[in-house]
What we know:
41% of the residues lie in helices and 12% in strands. By secondary structure, it is of the alpha+beta class. The strands form four sheets. Strands 1, 3, 7, 8, 9, 10 and 11 form a seven-stranded antiparallel beta sheet that branches. Helix 8 packs parallel to helix 10 and helix 11 (355-371) packs across helix 12. The radius of gyration is 23 Å and the shape is globular.
Amino acid sequence: MSTRSAGRRTPDSRHRFAIYGSPARAYALSVMSQFKPARNHEALGDDFYDRVRPADFPQTILRHRDQRWARRVGLDHLTDAEWIAHFARFEPLPGSFAEPLALRYHGHQFRTYNPDLGDGRGFLFAQCYDLEDGRLLDFGTKGSGRTPWSRGGDGRLTLKGGVREVLATEMLEALGVYTSKSFSLVETGEELWRGDEPSPTRSSVLVRLSHSHIRIGTFQRLAFLEETQSLEKLLDYCIAAYYPHLADHEDKPVAFLEAVTEKVAVLGAQWTAAGFVHGVLNTDNINITGESFDYGPWRFLPTYDPAFTAAYFDEAGLYSFGRQPDTLAWNLTRLAECLLPLAPAERLEPALNTVWPVFQKALPRAILNRLGLKPAGSEADAALVSALFPFLSASQSPYEQFFFDWYGGALSAERAARSPAAEHYASEAFRPVADALEAFSPAGAVKLDHPYFAREKPRTMLIDEMEAIWAPIAQRDDWSAFHEALAEIAVMRDAYGIKP
């Protein structure tokens, strides 16, 4: 019997009572002993969100749970039934929100302003504190049902969309990108009709864990409505929750803009180093903690190509790989405009203009992190970047293969000589890169004896590989390729020394 055919509804309330024990308070106390709940977002007030009810799904089949991050927030002890009760039936986590909050925001979509956005198929389910660093974390959903902002949509997520998001977040984390985490994926037993994939197709609900769901579009809504007091309230909340070191700053709007600009510019550099194309960089998809999230038509580069796009509907290439840094700068300019009621342009402009100096410093750092190398000084760091991209462009050597082959720098020369891409490294075009690499030494965390580096090729997640993972799930409910891919990514993450 397949996992899908064996799926059934989560136990009803009487069954859950039996699972959690009598009284239910004992269960709550067991969770609270580790889990540190929060409900900070409620302090903003009802003008910032709508209280909503989650969808009632006909099935709940657990397909993925991130135990590493569950452990970090004190929820790794939940049974699968308890997990589903919270992350598919959305029974409140003890101490957090009694009802989910569908957040309100606006945004530019492909540079066209849309005042009719908001959480249309998701909500903020709960908040908690990271047990390791104490930072505030959000549990946000995707596919959890209709809200006042659904705009005629069904509020659902396809199972394929959920699988794609899990693969994107796992891969990006392993490549050193600051990304949301796919905390939970549950198949929900509905048939969905979509124009961009064969229908009917299977459904799911995703819970992502991230540091904030406040977007540039959240500020845009208040600026559009000319709600200056609410704008100031949101700014104060964001500083208190996410940038507490700015609490005593004499010019909070400017300091906040500069801090967000730095985070977003660094993210752009990390995407470049990872060869990642987000696909839909609307202002409602850029949050104020600079954390990559909401993965729809994402792709990774096969080979270096600034014009490479992820979304089939991005016919003009607005969000192509090479234009992502420009797009992020454009989006940050929209944030700066929102802050004009709180600070004049002559004070905000210098903060906004830090975006390119930050990006130019962050890109070499991101490249060196990918290669496991220590910085060698700004000139040497910049020289490596200046040599690398012309080589990748001219040779069309596989993008991820280069970072795999040369992890550890010159120490990996012998290993790179055995690579499927070795002919590219023997060419004259590679000579400037080889010369530049001589200036660097490995970082302390480099583990070239790790089994991952005994492979011929790195684990990649190109579009054909993603489709090959999905095909057996769609055809015969075979999840083996999905689990094998996650296992390989876990090995890669360990090889690169990436911690939760």
